[in-house]
Amino acid sequence: MKAYETVIGLEVHVELATKTKIFCSCSTEFGGAPNTHTCPVCTGMPGSLPVLNKQVVEYAMAVGLATNCDITRNGKFDRKNYFYPDNPQNYQISQLYKPICTNGYVEIKGDNGETKQVRIHEIHMEEDAGKLIHDDFYDCSLVDLNRSGVPLIEIVSEPDMRSADEVVAYLEKLRLIIQYLGASDCKLNEGSMRADVNLSVREVGAKEFGTRTEMKNLNSFKAIARAIENETERQIDLIEAGEKVIQETRRWDDTKEYSYAMRSKEDAQDYRYFPDPDLVPVIISEEWLQEVKSREPEFRDEKMARYVEEFELPEYDADIITLYKPLADLFEETVALGNKPKEVSNWIMGETMRLCKEEGIDPDQIKFSAANLSKLIKLIEDSVINRGAAKEVFEEMFKTDVDPEKYVEEHGMKQDNDEDALREIVKKVIEENPKAVEDVRSGKGKAIGALVGQTMKATQGKANPAVVNKLLKELL
Question: Residues in domain Asn/Gln amidotransferase (predicted)?
Fold first, then answer.
């Protein structure tokens, strides 16, 4: 069999974190009752006129600057004409001829382990369409226009990626940049970041690209990786069988790990683009550009270096914590409340990551606050609870962001620090465990752990382990 290489470019749609839509004042909040966040503009009523949201332009500029793009100083909007039930105007306001950002790049680690640039062809602003809900029971489709008019940027890459690993690395880099800018939460599970994959294969060494397909319905990095691997195999099998790859849009079903054709791929002329007559040009002055640039945050690489230097965290800890902006925010806010950086890091790296894995959620979906994590750490430091009890409290806090102080009080979890009372319990444990006592006295230091365990069991886990250790050593 011949050797093939995969050629991949992405179209990444990102919902921007504005409070209102791109051309009207309707709410962009996720999860409202169907068709409640709507008005004549975003439902496409005749005679309604769009008014551009300034914050959308500033977010687009910020993402463009952070991805090394040129910013178009004199831009405009265009109408992309097509009929679809969730597109109430029968056109989408987008940018074809003068997108706000062009000719950028981001750097990733390529398959060979070296730094690689993935070029960005353009970033343009546009409005989102509505959403169709398909009801199999009643055999009908319902339209929810809450999402219609939600502001998007579409980040169009050049076909510079060669594997699923490079695609995921690129998407993670974009996600981090956009999250750190505060331009979007980039939650794939809520659709605020969506990627369409344009993929073709060709023989290794060939200069011409193969016929590409576009895959949609990709809502997680794992689904994207699986879809890429599946489509690569499908196209190679077609070529090896002497058949042609058809240029088309395909829909990926991650449950069945199968893609199926939706429609033949349209070209730009099929949409009959023309300048939107209701919107004025977007003029970006040097002063406005510099103002947006001056608000750039500390990005991940700088933050990692600072965590190692300022907080003396291991590089591994800094790498994991900064991989998700909400984790970095949680870490910094908890440290700012007077907690030791390494102690905060231990709770994030240990129990937080463990529970995220068990619950099958991403770290940017955690619910508990820095204030409550700080309270939990203080309860341990003040010997109000021991670490075993703290883990139990943390599990509840992880689920519901419960106040740990109230939880400990309500559930009678305060540890016993009374040396006199504990001395009597320790004496009894020593009497009942002569073998362990003999091991300790013969120099087997680890044997004391068994006696500590028996004491903790006798006190239902409420004894202070430090006090128990002290008393055991004293009495033995």
Answer: 329-476
**pLDDT (tens digit, 9 = 90+) per residue, 61-98?**
999 999 999 999 999 999 999 888 889 999 999 999 99
Q: ∠319-322-324 over CA atoms, to 5°? A: 120
pTM above 0.70, yes or no: yes
Q: Which domains does the chain have, with CATH numbers?
A: 4-287 (no CATH), 300-410 (no CATH), 419-475 (1.10.10.410)
Q: How many other C-beta atoms lie within 10 A of the C-beta of residue 193?
A: 22
The burial of 134, by beta-carbon neighbours within 10 Å (0-12 exposed, 13-18 middle, 19 or more buried), is given as: exposed
